[in-house]
Every structure is written in C-alpha cells, then in structure tokens.
Amino acid sequence: MSSFLHTKYQALEAYTPGEQPRDKQYIKLNTNESPYPPSQAVLTALGEEDIRDLRLYSDPEGKALKLALARLYGMGADQVFLSNGSDDILNFAFMAFGQDGAVFPDLTYSFYPVFADLHGVPYSTVPLHEDFTVDVPGLSGTGKLTVLANPNAPTGIALPLSEVEKIIASNPDHVVVIDEAYVDFGADSAAALVDRYPNLLVVMTYSKSRSMAGARLGFALGQPELIADLEKLKFSTNPYNVNRLTLKLGIAAVASDDYFRANAQRIMATRETTTNALRQMGFSIPDSQANFLFITHPQVDGAKLYQACKDKGVLIRHFSTPALAPYNRVTIGSEEEMAAFLSVVEEILAEEGV
Hints:
Elements: E1 27-28, H1 40-43, H2 48-52, H3 63-73, E2 80-83, H4 86-97, E3 102-105, H5 111-118, E4 123-126, H6 136-139, E5 145-149, H7 161-169, E6 176-179, E7 200-205, E8 218-222, H8 224-235, H9 244-255, H10 257-280, E9 292-295, H11 302-311, E10 314-315, E11 317-318, E12 328-331, H12 335-351
Parallel strand pairs: 1-10, 3-4, 3-5, 5-6, 6-7
Antiparallel strand pairs: 2-8, 7-8, 9-12, 11-12
C-alpha cells in the first residue's frame, strides 16, 4: 500500500476471488463456472468485421441486447440494466440505495460487506437459522437496503418465491435486491414480481447458467425509475461498461436460451447424483438449488479435505471464517469431472481411516 491511498480506503478488506493456480492442471470445482461451453450461436457470433470494429466504442445503452432480454423476460427495455458482470450492479446498488444502511444474511456472498465498506454504508447482518435457511422475519421491514442472494451462497439453499415476496413487500420505502446468480438451477425467479414492486431490483448474470463467465456480462430487472437510477450512476462513471463483442455475444446467448436451460437441467441431474454419493460417504449437505454443493464430514476437517483434494488435482473452495471452516463448496462440473472428484474423496476418506 502506498502513502497516497485515501485514508478511507486504507482499512478496506477486499474481496478474495476463487484461486486460479497455474502450477499444474486441475479439475476446477472452485469458482462455480459451467462445465459446458456456450451455444453454437455464441461460438459463431463474431466475425472479422466485429474485430475490425473494435476501433469503435460500444453502444453505451446496449439497446439491442436490452430489447432481447426484455422480450425474454416479458418486460420493457427500460426495465433492463446492463453491466460488466453482476458485481457491477451490486456495487451501484450499495452506492445508490444505501443511504439508510444495508442488511443481508451473515453467511452469504462475501462481496456484500466489501461494497458496503467501500461506499461507507453501515450494515448489519441477520444470522441464518441452524439449518442455514434464511431468517425471513429478520430480513423483513428493515428500513434499509436489503440484499438477498437467492439461492444463497455458499449454502445453495433457495427461499420459495412466496417468502421472497414477504421480504420485498415489508420494505416498501427501501430497495430490496434479489441476487439471482444461481436461480436457473432450480429456484423461482423474482423477475415475476418486478411489475408489482417499485422497490425490487433483480440481479442476474451470464457467468453461471449461460456459460460466459469470461465475457463479464450481468443485467438487472426492475421498474423503469429504478433502472434509471442505475443508468445515472453508470453514465457518471463508465458509460461504455460493456464492450462491443460481449454485447453481440449476449444477444446470441439470449437466442440460445433453450440450450442453456437444457445444460442447467443436466447440471441439476449431476448435482443430484453427486449429492447422493457424498451422503452415502457420510457427508452432510443442505439441499442445493445452485450449481454447487456445501459439504461437511463429521470426521474430516474442512481445510484438510480441501488441501487433500488440491494435492490430488481437484480444486474446491474452502472458506477460513470460523462458521464456514468445517465446510467446502464444490462446483458441479461435468459427469466425468464429478466422478473423478468422488473417486478422490473416497481415496481421502480411506487414507483418513473413515
């Protein structure tokens, strides 16, 4: 850290992304990427002319992609906001709507407290229930910006839409952000509620079910006035926040929605098979509606399992905070990758005498 950094940022604890080691080839089950490529339409969407046109700025409004997403979700283009990954939207949400503070579950996406600290937003957290389910009354009527990942991370547990609606309806004078990065893997989207609640912002991403984590594309759905607030901040910071190539790939992905939905179903089936196998080995796992599992074993330390898997060429995600330390988060890969993971886990358990 230099001596020039503003004092208000010096104590900021930055978000830690999942590791991306290059020392050897790993089966990568630590960052919740899709094991399947984008659709053929996405793979063939770009041509020489698109590369040549990189000399030109992208459309700052992203009109064509907004129209495509609006049609897909049955709303107007003025109800869609585009961003460089969904994290950009979350950043703007804390900046725009956190004047009275923020609240979110205590075990959730670890970027939320970073954004709050970055923008000087005081925040409180609501403990999850013992079974890791979200405390709906605790998040209701807070009088603050309320942020809920649904399905939650790193647990994978989703609230029914009726429970999500209770939180939104209870907080009419403050924005409720529903972060739906994993919604396509079995949960119900709050997009169906957008026209009924002016305080609702639904945040989605291309990084998970749409197989485009490297493209950095996210979007939000909300009533026009709320979207206009985000647009104001975007045009005050980085109006060309989505590049030309990503905009075009995003349109091709919308046209391939059936392909991505089918891949999500395939991942869900693999998730079920993997869950059953791990439970037979003695692991405890909440019922996940995401593309990952949150696993713990009563006889194997979480950090030890993570390191043993890494030593054997499989990356999973371990969190060092005390509440999460017994657990590991495991991305659902392809059928072949999960079979290899299960074989590695069996080896480790045998080595531990379990």
